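Q: Here's a chain of 118 amino acids. Please give me its 3D structure as tokens.
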Amino acid sequence: QVQVVESGGGLVQPGGSLRLSCVVSGTIFGANIMGWYRQAPGGARELVAQMSAAGTTNYGNAVKGRFTISRDNAKSTVYLQMDTLKPEDTAVYYCHIRLLTLKPVDYWGQGTQVTVSS
């Protein structure tokens, strides 16, 4: 069984920074991709950033140059450093892991609220 728990959300002013953390528990076999998605009120869930264990990254266009994803494979943890935050970054941020089996399996965290406002 895989469990995903993220933390670090909160209220921050525009231009500020925030760091999210996500711990994945349970034994993970095989290749996987860990990352972050977000969902604004009334909006669709969109990709923020994702990273393979080997270090390959992919960022959503809205956050390129401002957010940085990193992984600590020994701790089964993924981080999201968010800089130069904008009000439009306000959303619930979800940690995600995809197991790259023949039939990929996705696991999601409960979400953490990030609010960017003055």
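Q: Can you summarize the key feature?
A: The first strand starts at residue 3 and ends at 7.
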